[in-house]
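Q: what sequence does this backbone want?
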């Protein structure tokens, strides 16, 4: 029996060690890719859930009536001859405030914001009675920021 050659054994162990490290790195990179995909999927699901929530808030009977009045260029507030109180208009405007916060926190995708809400963001923000009301009673920053985001978007679905 030959004596154990410690040098040869050290070389073999080193080669096996590097091979195992290489395999571990490859497996780690694969796992990182899988985690990124899962996070992307989770973000897409969260965006869709936020779209559903915002849809349910925006498209209530009261708010769709306000949207209808805007589209028909009718007066909104009772004090001006319209059908809605200050509280009802506040509720309507607050939805756009929420949209802005959700978008800024990256909880809704630009594509979803544009496809689902850009028309009503634009027409509501530009409506003279809403502009006057907001100047009188609201800090316009969130709604105006949301309006700018939509207007400056390169997304073809933003109107």
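A:
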């Amino acid at each position: 029996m030959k004596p154990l050659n410690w040098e040869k054994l050290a070389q073999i162990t080193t080669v096996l060690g590097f091979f195992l490290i290489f395999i571990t790195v490859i497996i780690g990179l694969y796992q990182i890719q899988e985690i990124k995909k899962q996070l992307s999927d989770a973000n897409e699901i969260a965006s869709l859930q936020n779209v559903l929530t915002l849809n349910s808030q925006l498209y209530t009977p009261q708010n769709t009536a306000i949207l209808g009045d805007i589209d028909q260029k009718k007066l909104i507030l009772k004090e001006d001859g319209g059908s809605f109180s200050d509280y009802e208009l506040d509720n309507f405007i607050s939805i756009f405030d929420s949209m802005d916060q959700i978008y800024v926190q990256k909880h809704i995708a630009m594509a979803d914001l544009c496809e689902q809400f850009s028309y009503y963001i634009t027409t509501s923000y530009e409506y003279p009675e809403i502009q006057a009301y907001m100047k009188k009673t609201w800090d316009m920053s969130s709604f105006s920021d949301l309006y700018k985001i939509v207007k400056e978007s390169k997304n073809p679905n933003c109107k």
